[in-house]
Design goal:
Blueprint lengths: L23 E2 L12 E3 L6 E2 L12 E4 L5 E2 L12 E4 L3 E2 L15 E4 L5 E2 L12 E4 L5 E2 L12 E4 L7 E2 L12 E3 L6 E2 L12 E3 L6 E2 L12 E3 L1
Parallel strand pairs: 1-3, 2-4, 3-5, 4-6, 6-8, 7-9, 9-11, 10-12, 11-13, 13-15, 14-16, 15-17, 16-18
């Protein structure tokens, strides 16, 4: 419930039972627990309410379980030491900006094999991550999902990836990516999808592409190898 463990500043460990059936983490439930070093949200949790983990400034890693449906305002505000983010939620999105509270500090982003949808602006501006790996079950990457992930040098897709659509500006401005290889099942590359990926030297287009939007690869001036 709300404020259940608020300001338990001496607690270093936060753990949940292996088969935990908890559904909701209340508002300010762990607010100010600044000695907790790791936060792992159980798979059955659907709602993380406002300020639930605000100012848990000792945490270095955050794991989000499979069932998340909503994240409240400032749920992780002030968690400035979190550098590792792992997500298992099948449909991950921006949550009206809430999920970006800690975006500038994340250096390691891991998407679990349970992820099927990456929503609009989901990881836009995560400038600290060095690689982007899309799991096999992802069917669509929405608009601006990874826009301006300036530090990412590697972009990879699972070997048996079922991805169909790459949204508008999905990877726009990712100027450190060195290679772009569109998976076999992708049919639509939307407008500006890879615009200004100016570090890429090679581009491979898979066999199912049916449409390529305006400026999809505009500004990719260093591409010298094209495979279609």
């Amino acid at each position: 419930s709300a404020s259940a463990f608020e300001n338990c500043s001496g607690a270093t460990d936060l753990s949940f039972g292996i088969n935990n059936v908890m559904k909701t983490i209340g508002a300010s439930a762990f607010l100010g627990c600044d000695s907790i070093t790791s936060i792992s949200i159980p798979d059955n949790v659907t709602d993380i309410n406002a300020s639930a983990f605000e100012n848990c400034s000792g945490a270095t890693d955050l794991t989000i379980g499979e069932s998340i449906d909503s994240i409240g305002v400032s749920a992780f505000a002030g968690c400035t030491t979190i550098t590792e983010l792992t997500i298992y939620a099948s449909k991950w999105r921006d949550y009206d900006g809430v999920s970006l509270d800690i975006s500038t500090n994340i250096t390691s982003l891991t998407l679990g094999n349970t992820v099927t949808h990456i929503g609009e602006n989901a990881f836009s501006g995560y400038t600290g991550i060095t690689s982007i790996s899309i799991p096999n079950l992802v069917t669509d990457i929405s608009a601006s999902a990874f826009k301006n992930c300036l530090g990412a040098t590697d972009l990879s897709f699972g070997i048996n990836n079922v991805l169909k659509t790459i949204g508008v500006s999905a990877f726009s401005g990712c100027d450190s990516i060195t290679s772009i290889s569109i998976p076999t099942l992708v049919t639509d590359i939307s407008a500006s999808a890879f615009e200004n990926c100016s570090g890429a030297t090679d581009l491979t287009i898979g066999e199912s592409v049916d449409s390529i939007g305006v400026s999809a690869f505009a500004g990719c001036t260093t591409i010298t190898e094209l495979t279609i």
